[in-house]
Amino acid sequence: MNIDAFEFNLPKQLIAQSSLEQPDKSRLLYISDKSIRDYNTLDLSNILKPGDLLIANNTKVINSRIIGKIEHKSFSITMLNEYEIGIWQALVKGSKKLNLGDNVILPNNMLISVQSKGERGIVYFNVNLNKTDFINYLNHYGELPLPPYIKLDDKSNNIINYQTLFAKNYGAVAAPTAGLHFTNNLKTNLANKNINICEITLHVGAGTFLPIEVSDISKHNMHSEYFSIDDEVANKINLTKKNGGRIIAIGTTVLRALESSCDVNGYVNSFKGDTSIFISPGYKIKSTDYLLTNFHLPKSTLFILVCAYAGIKTMHKAYQHAIDKKYRFYSLGDACLIKKTHIL
User: Would you state the pLDDT for residue 159?
Assistant: First the structure.
């Protein structure tokens, strides 16, 4: 399938540049093959039914963006993950100017060295701190790696609202943004209707920002991300299914984790490991009934995923409705609740 099938025109002024003061007051577009309806996020407790179960991602974003220097040259470095013990994978702007063995000075005179280089700006650094200590160092001296389409000069408000209510486990370089709409007030409203939330972990990687560079999407190599689902959560999901409740993924990261760990009947197994699953039209979703997610970039793996979830025509129609109604797009924008429908 050609990547052009996932193109749409989005006015730049609809790209959200700041968070709402009350995240649960964001707008919510309900999408199915039968109808498209306008709500706000607080309406979730009325749209969903008692016995339904939402699954959230509790990953926490590291302050992984940091400035490194070699003599008079500066580099913007985004640390992605500990690739091996003592070796960190990073995305570096201007990586072509780095050579094997180069020593790079970070804030507070911390020294890291270039161990090897990959493609598309990837560099591997030797780091003389254990993983926990280095994450603590980054959180002290680094910055949150806000998406490149957020252009504000003063990003302080965005930083406050870029961690989700569920954030617990450090490891992400981007927020699982569907979770940004949740507040304690919304959680209480859901709980009062016997609509519960449980949590999994998927550490969002930098691949979430990387464009597809092939015209035939079947040839796209999806990035790999670590995730974990424990026995208790898997059992809750499966019991909900057996009791007739519906499973709602809070975000594409949750959906990818569940699809990577479920059997052919949609029952979820506990798991710890990596996934590089690429969900595109023709793939049959097994694990969930609904997907709560933000509005995504054209030609992105995320827009392709939602087209697999509800159909290409349905999603183009829904996105055009959102554009006409001036919904706010991307990471800090509004949300949609998509009903699973296996059609193109």
Answer: 45
Give the chain's domain count: 2
Over residues 236-268, the pLDDT tens digits come to 999 999 999 999 999 999 999 999 999 999 999
- Does residue 115 sit in the same domain as residue 13? no
Residue appearing with tokens 């499973």: 247
Asked whether residue 308 is assigned to any structural domain, the reply reads yes
Q: How confident is the model at residue 317 (pLDDT cuts 50, 70, 90)?
A: very high
CATH number for position 188 = 3.40.1780.10
Q: CB within 8 A of 321, min separation 6: which ones? A: 29, 36
Q: What is the pTM of this model?
A: 0.93
Give the span between the Cα atoms of 287 and 237, in whole angstroms.
9
DSSP β-ladder status, 335-339 and 27-31: parallel
* C-alpha neighbours within 13 Å on the C-beta side of residue 240: 28
Which domain-ending residue is among 74, 106, 141? 141
Range of the domain at 129: 65-141
CB 106 within 8 A of CB 141: yes
* pLDDT > 80? residue 158: no
CA atoms within 13 A on the CB side of 255: 28
On average, the pLDDT of the chain sits at 94
Q: Are 178 and 292 in contact (CB under 8 A)?
A: yes
CB 234 within 8 A of CB 283: no
